[in-house]
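Progress against Task 2.4 (sequence-to-structure conversion) is shown through the following example record, which the project officer requested during the mid-term review.
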Amino acid sequence: MNQVKMVPYPSHSIIPERDEGHAVLQARELGIDFGGLTAVDDFTLTIGRTEIAGLIGPNGAGKTTVFNLLTNVYQPTRGSILIDGKNTVGKSTYQVNKLGVARTFQNIRLFANMSVLDNVKTGLHNGIQTSLLSSVLHTPGFKKAEKEANERVMELLDVFHMGYMANYPAGSLPYGAQRRLEIVRALATQPKILLLDEPAAGMNPSETAELMETIHQIRDTFQIAIMLIEHDMNLVMGICEGICVLNYGKIIAKGTPDEIKNNPLVIEAYLGKGKGGNTNAASE
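Structure tokens generated for the chain above:
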């Protein structure tokens, strides 16, 4: 990928120059303890409004725990999270989603027996305003909202060339298409930042290359930030503009792909002290 100029941001962070002064996510000294054990500590990170960012680290480093904190699945023991300048403290996962945070999961979580169209419609809850009574009585207002929802779903599916799959059962789709469908459903919530948890897991090289194109397409089409957890270092180094490296729940490095792949602390975290090499072995 073309190198993007990164500029300093408060809290020892960097964001793309095009996003200067416009952070969508700010995590400040974030930490969580479980039964006296610290899982994540002093996690401070800023993501620009249209940045593609990576969160990497060895297995068990605390990456998914960070995603659970950012979506308020877990309430932090300390620290704060700002989404577009709004503090998420005390908010539910649903409320955080309404603020603009959407995510996918390492294990695909689709409604396998529902159609592709209906799976995406479940993500439209932030934009549909209908009452239970109107849905039961099928009032003109409900029918109008339903028509608009179907049209919005088809628009989203067409962006990813999946419109012809609208009536297919989600569980019948090939693996790569199921991954894309999960992303489309997340986009239906109109996020400001999309969190992708190991989106390339289980993909072959061709599917991974297609995923890289999809991620760029999402950023460029919807003008949102994307943050991904990923073990495929070719994908991370090829697509991410800023990368944060976590080990034992603490950040050990932040920087551009070139800075990260040559960072001795990162190499040691992945390969062990004194073994040399490079971060391409991160997926081992």
